[in-house]
């Protein structure tokens, strides 16, 4: 199968960019599974050394005019009106807004994400385990002292504010990857800024748990499974995909930040790092992600739509509205 993928950002991404990493890993895995891949994207992208054909796209240019004639299907990772006569899928990673209609060939990024748009069409996001080696010597986590915040700190729905409160109220260190806190210098708060690659991995490996108290219906949350690759439990809110991703033995979900504070004050339970890591391997590997997408491609190539009706955000409020936590 010849898959044409368009993305508007440079690949591979160097630092922040969960969607960009998923797109790049998917292209690599398609090649490994014997498919042909053409990427339409910025000239700074470095994909050809991986066996991927690169068609240079410049900002402002109509990328659809660059799609080759010999491709089987187009894959785009954001809502887009496809005007060319070619089979396609749209992998939407964000939430819609009231009244917005999505294409019938939309694939959402988690079961709850699809459900929140009145759809059943989804492929769970994934990570490439090759980029997440482990170095822990003890398989058990019996005490949590260092918390990790792994998200874009400036985005208020990611809830750095209450993450800081949780850390300070429970006397735990908080390592912030994705921006900086407004507290300034504090012995418990460690600002690492925007990090990626080995630097981010090194910080993750020093932490005992991921704090993810988001205040919106999180479509997926790649940071959750990134942390789990290191055997790190996740403690978060109960919105969006979190109850599906954070299963028994991998962390907990809560209904308020006060509940998290009380949980830590009571003393955390013991966690098995291998169990947490294997949860990702079995459910959120890039191999499974790509195989699932190939099945979606086959449905479309067979002349069918992935949704019976146009998916639509089911709530009356905008997705970015902060929910009480």
Give a structural overview.
The chain has 325 residues and is an alpha/beta fold. The protein folds into two domains: 2-126 and 287-301, Rossmann fold (3-Layer(aba) Sandwich), CATH 3.40.50.2000; 130-282, 3-Layer(aba) Sandwich (Rossmann fold), CATH 3.40.50.2000. Helices cover 27% and strands 17% of the residues. The protein has nine helices and 14 strands. The protein has helices at residues 18-32, 111-115, 160-169, 197-205, 222-229, 242-245, 257-266, 273-283, 286-301, and strands at 2-6, 36-41, 53-56, 73-76, 88-91, 106-107, 140-141, 146-150, 173-177, 189-193, 209-212, 234-237, 251-254, 271-272. Strands 3-2-1-4-5-6 form a six-stranded parallel beta sheet, with helices on one face. Strands 10-9-8-11-12-13 form a six-stranded parallel beta sheet, with helices on both faces. Strands 7-14 form a two-stranded antiparallel ribbon. The termini are far apart. The model has no long low-confidence stretch (mean pLDDT 95).
Question: What's the topology here?
Answer:
Layout: E1 2-6, H1 18-32, E2 36-41, E3 53-56, E4 73-76, E5 88-91, E6 106-107, H2 111-115, E7 140-141, E8 146-150, H3 160-169, E9 173-177, E10 189-193, H4 197-205, E11 209-212, H5 222-229, E12 234-237, H6 242-245, E13 251-254, H7 257-266, E14 271-272, H8 273-283, H9 286-301
Parallel strand pairs: 1-2, 1-4, 2-3, 4-5, 5-6, 8-9, 8-11, 9-10, 11-12, 12-13
Antiparallel strand pairs: 7-14
Helix pairs in contact: 1-9, 3-7
């Amino acid at each position: 199968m010849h898959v044409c993928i368009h993305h508007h950002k440079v690949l591979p991404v160097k630092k922040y960019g969960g969607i960009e990493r998923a797109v790049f890993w998917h292209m690599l895995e398609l090649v490994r599974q014997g498919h042909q891949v053409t990427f339409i994207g910025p000239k700074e992208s470095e994909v050809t050394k991986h066996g991927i054909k690169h068609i240079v796209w410049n900002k402002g240019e109509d990328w659809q005019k660059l799609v080759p004639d010999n491709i089987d299907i187009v894959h785009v990772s954001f809502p887009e009106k496809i005007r060319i006569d070619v089979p396609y899928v749209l992998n939407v990673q964000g939430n819609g807004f009231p009244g917005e209609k999505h294409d019938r060939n939309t694939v959402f990024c988690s079961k709850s994400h699809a459900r929140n748009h009145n759809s059943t069409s989804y492929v769970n996001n994934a990570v490439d385990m090759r980029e997440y080696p482990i170095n822990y010597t003890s398989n058990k986590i019996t005490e949590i002292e260092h918390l990790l915040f792994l998200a874009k700190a400036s985005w208020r729905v990611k809830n750095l504010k209450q993450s800081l409160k949780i850390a300070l109220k429970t006397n735990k260190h908080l390592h912030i990857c994705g921006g900086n806190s407004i507290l300034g210098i504090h012995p418990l708060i460690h600002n690492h800024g925007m990090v990626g690659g080995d630097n981010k991995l090194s910080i993750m490996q020093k932490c005992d748990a991921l704090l993810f108290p988001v205040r919106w219906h999180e479509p997926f949350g790649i940071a959750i499974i990134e942390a789990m690759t290191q055997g790190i439990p996740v403690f978060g809110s109960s919105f969006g995909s979190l109850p599906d991703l954070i299963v028994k033995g991998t962390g907990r979900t809560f209904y308020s930040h006060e509940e998290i504070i009380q949980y830590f004050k009571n003393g955390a339970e013991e966690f098995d790092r291998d169990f947490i890591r294997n949860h990702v391997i079995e459910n959120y590997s890039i191999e499974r992600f790509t195989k699932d997408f190939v099945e979606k491609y086959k449905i479309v190539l067979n002349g069918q739509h992935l949704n019976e009706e146009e998916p639509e955000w089911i709530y009356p409020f905008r997705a970015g509205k902060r929910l009480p936590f």
